[in-house]
Structures are given as structure tokens and as C-alpha cells.
Amino acid sequence: MRIARFVDQAEPTYGIVEGPADADPSELSITALQGDPFFHGVQPTDQKHRLEDVRLVAPIIPRSKIVGVGRNWADHAKELGNDVPASPQFFLKPNTSVVGPNEPVTLPSWSDEVSYEAELAVVIGTICKDVPLERVDDVVFGYTVANDLTARDAQRTDLQWARAKGFDGACPLGPWIETELDVEAAGGLAVRSRVDGETRQDGTTADMVFGIKELVSAISEAFTLLPGDVILTGTPSGVGLVEAGQRVECEVEGIGTLLTHLRR
Length: 264
Ligand code: ZN
Hints:
Blueprint: E1 2-7, E2 13-18, E3 29-33, H1 37-40, E4 44-50, E5 55-57, E6 66-70, H2 74-79, E7 89-93, E8 98-99, E9 104-106, E10 114-115, E11 118-124, H3 136-139, E12 140-147, E13 150-151, H4 152-157, H5 162-166, E14 171-178, E15 190-195, E16 198-204, H6 212-222, E17 230-232, E18 247-252, E19 256-263
Parallel strand pairs: 6-17, 8-14, 9-19
Antiparallel strand pairs: 1-2, 1-5, 1-14, 2-3, 3-4, 6-7, 10-13, 11-12, 11-17, 12-14, 15-16, 15-18, 18-19
């Protein structure tokens, strides 16, 4: 099931996106839900729209936090001159960094080196703490696509990554949350990015240093996770800088493609 949030006329509303996974967006529809599926379950209404007649917004604005994971792909750690860490390395992005699919991101005036990072994002469904590996599935609501935008210059000069990874717009999320993704599929799931249509990253979750369940479990030992919290699971090699006017597409196999426009 694909859970999105959309704007028709008034307030953002949750909906279920329906249609074949490989269909053109013009063939997809969205059925509005009653209330917030994170707290009230999935309750469809009789209101249905063509997907192209509504505007999707970020499928979730985390109520408390986005937890990122640094250097979780060996080839990406290497391309930035870093070693693979012995234990997973976490950082936080504020919820004010979230923007939705197809939304513009204004590059910060204080950075000349903003990079894209395509990532699989875990969306938490229930309050939890100290989650053992075998219970991780019980606390996950679903999965979406993230672009962990990072100001490399500020990442080098600042003591912490708060500004480099937390500026307004630094966390595009979407286009929707897939609730039935098999993240342990044999061979992994492809994680890709394209800049102006040209492929830049093409990795697979099979190459992650720490797996998705390991990350959720380890993060829950540090933080109580709340419904709607988001975990970014790291990025494959091929990251690079972007400029105003460029379009970045981040894609995770089995979920969809998140498009972001950059501007100054
Ligand atoms: Zn990242």
C-alpha cells in the first residue's frame, strides 16, 4: 500500500495511491483517508481523485526527529576519504528540513558545495525503545525515499553537522510511504540518483555496512522513537555537487522516485 499526503483544496489529507507500480502517474489515483493513519489506522473515504489533479506534499513531517546514518556504504565512505566506522554513526536533521516531492529547495547562501545523497528512509509507526532485531518489523510503518542534502563545505568546517545537514529543505521526502516493502529481498533494493536525467548513484541495499534492522535497533538504544520519526539509512557512492536550476531524482526500487528542484 502506498500512503501519500496531498493537497486538494484545503488542508493536507492522507490518501492511498492506487494503480500498477510501474504505471505512468497519469494512470494513478488517490483515495482520501479519514484522519491520520499513524494514529487512526487506514480508513478510506469515498473521495477519489486522479493523482495528477492533486499536489503531493511530504508524506510525513516527523513530529520529533529524523535520524541520519553516516558512512553506511563502504564505497561512499571511501570516496569521501573516510574509513568504514566500527559502529553506526548517527546525526539528526530537524523536521523543518523536510520538503515534499517536486518541491523546490533553496540552496543556502553560505554554502557553495551542496551534494545530493539518495537514501532509503524508514518511517516509524509506533513509540518504541530498545527494539530487538526480531521486533523491528513491528515498529515500522513503511518506507520512503529521501535526499539527504548536505553542504560539504560546512560539514568540513563546522564541529557538528547540524547546519550542513539540517538547513531548510535539506530533507526532501516522498513521493509516498510504501508499507509493504521487502527490505530483505535477495540481492537488495536498488538505490539510485539522477541529476538532470543522468545517472550518478546506482547502488543496492545489499552493500550497506549495517542493515536496516540493525540500524533501527541500534538507534532505538539511543533515542525513544515516536510515530512518524524517520531514519535515513545512508547513501551509495556517486555523490556530487548540484547547482541552482538542476533537477535531482532519487529512486528506491519498490517505492518510487523523489524529484527535487534546486534554486538559489
Ligand atoms: Zn546521508
